[in-house]
Predict the 3D structure of the following.
Amino acid sequence: MSIQVKNIHKQFGDFTALDDISLDFPSGELVALLGPSGCGKTTLLRIIAGLEQADAGQVLLDGEDASSTHVRERQVGFVFQHYALFKHMTVFDNVAFGMRMKPRGQRPSEAKIRDKVHELLKLVQLDWLADRFPSQLSGGQRQRIALARALAVEPRVLLLDEPFGALDAKVRKELRRWLRKLHDELHITSIFVTHDQEEALEVADRVVLMDHGKVEQIGTPEEVYRHPATPFVYGFLGSVNLFHGRVDGESVRVGDDTLAHQTSDLAHGAEVVAFARPHELDIDTDPASTAGIAARINRILAFGVTARVELDGINGSTGQHFEVEITRQRVLDLGLTDGQDVRLVPSRLKVFEKDGATG
Ligand code: ATP
């Protein structure tokens, strides 16, 4: 089932939680809603589910306006961060619950329910836990059971709100891969909310980045990571180095230093912020060199194959901190040491004009 959200607006008193949101979720996709706490992800998910009313705008399910369709008829399955499985029911009864609650005419026979529950428990690879109670399960197992329970009513859409948020990092990682595999088998249109960028980039077909009730960018993980549309997206999707400067001909002037960059679409003198990820900066130790930004090495962390070099800006960038990721071998080849003055030279740079235009 495809989902379309059109010009959704949601206000809580004076506070605007969602500001004119329009999005398309094609049938069969796994989409992540990603953004910082409070940006409106859960509210949007609840509006799609029919658990919350928008003040303006529409939700279309397979092209049909869903506003008059009751939650129960939307054929939506939910999994929440703290999904309250019924404590007094076994895993089997928890998964069977939705089917047993169906109106008389639509309710499957107990034999059919039994087959379906076992099929679902096999799908989430927990068939052996059917007779346990929720208190006898690990957090990760509980969330897989919650997913089996959501799937039991054969939803056409799955909505997952931080489904792995309460679990420790290792279990989260395992479940993330598992969810991706499960989705590849079932192809149910799925939207999951997360504030963890790694989770979104690793699992989703497409990522919707939200901030302050607005959509900042939509794209494949590769698109949003490689080509962030706004400074917010750049900063949210990983470590980043910032250089504040002005456009000066074919370069960006940062204090006394110069960053070479194609800036033909920006006005001379425009105030800009240039972004480079740690792996997009190299270190130049030649004392005669004038390229890039002057900085002093503060600390070198070289435990594995890659090394992280932390630096403080000097000259034009005094007070700024930078982070460079290079191979440990390069640290040795260059003979880098703490306190050394070097220059940072970007291999790739993204320049945003201070008022929002990019170059
Ligand atoms: P988190 O990752 O912390 O769950 P979120 O992005 O899912 O955040 P929402 O839960 O959608 O954010 O909330 C968006 C904003 O709306 C928040 O500032 C929240 O305080 C506010 N909000 C949500 N529900 C209500 C409500 N019922 N009444 C008043 N304000 C609300």
User: Anything to note?
Assistant: The mean pLDDT is 90.
